[in-house]
Amino acid sequence: MNIKKLNTVVVTDIFGKSPALEKLCTNLLNKSSDNIKIIDPYNGQFIEFTDEKQAYQHFTESGGVDVFAKSLLETLITDKKPTRVIAFSVGASALWTLSENKQLAHIKQATCFYGSQIRYHQNIKPLFPIQLIFPNHETHFDVDELQKKVALKKRVTTIKTAYLHGFMNELSTNFNNNAYAEYLKFIAAT
After folding, report:
1. Residue environment code for 76-111, b if the CB has 16+ CB neighbours within 10 A, otherwise e
2. Which long-range contacts (CB under 8 A, 24 or more apart) does 51-55 make?
């Protein structure tokens, strides 16, 4: 499928819409898409967080993954054009929880980076192709065990990277410039 013909939706992490995310989207536009829609947990509002702890606390106080997933579903079902989704962290987890929803049949592919809360929803059976990009490790669970379980599902492919959770976000303490460049190319090629 020609990705130039697909809408591209980027679903953010706990930092929401930020200059770093807009830079990532600009890089994606240059490489693989004609337009990109950003969906974040804060209704498009820019919030400057001092660190990840503050961003996580704000995200949790805003309702967490369940509320974000509900908002994400409402936004995704408004446009039924063929779509690909690129999601990060809590955005990846929210998309995963929605991936068996028949109202999202227009999603033709998804790439989800380090969606650590997927571990709470292992019974999900995605209805569209979804690539799960895992970090090298997580402190709260065994990445290898989760990867093995979800890789057995139809329409799911997995990759375990050498990088840490947050490697694609310049605002994360785990940002990795080499990984960022590598996975921008990866996204453009998928």
Report:
1. beeeeebbbbbbbbbbbbbbbbbbebeebeebbbbb
2. 51/173, 52/14, 52/166, 52/171, 52/172, 52/173, 55/14, 55/15, 55/16, 55/171
Please count the structural domains in the chain.
1
Q: Per 3-state DSSP, what percentage of the chain is helix, strand, and coil (rounded to 5)?
A: 40, 15, 40
Strands (DSSP E) along the chain, which ranges? 7-11, 36-39, 83-88, 107-113, 130-134, 156-160
Kind and range of the H or E run holding 21: helix 19-32
Whole-model pTM: value is 0.94
Look up the domain containing 131 and give its range. Answer: 3-189
Q: Name residue 62's beta-bridge partners.
A: none
CATH of residue 145's domain is: 3.40.50.1820
Count other Cβ atoms within 10 Å, centred on residue 66.
11
Mean pLDDT in order along the chain per 10 residues (190 residues): 72 96 86 79 93 95 96 94 96 98 97 97 97 97 97 98 97 97 91
Residue 51 tokens, joined: 């660190």
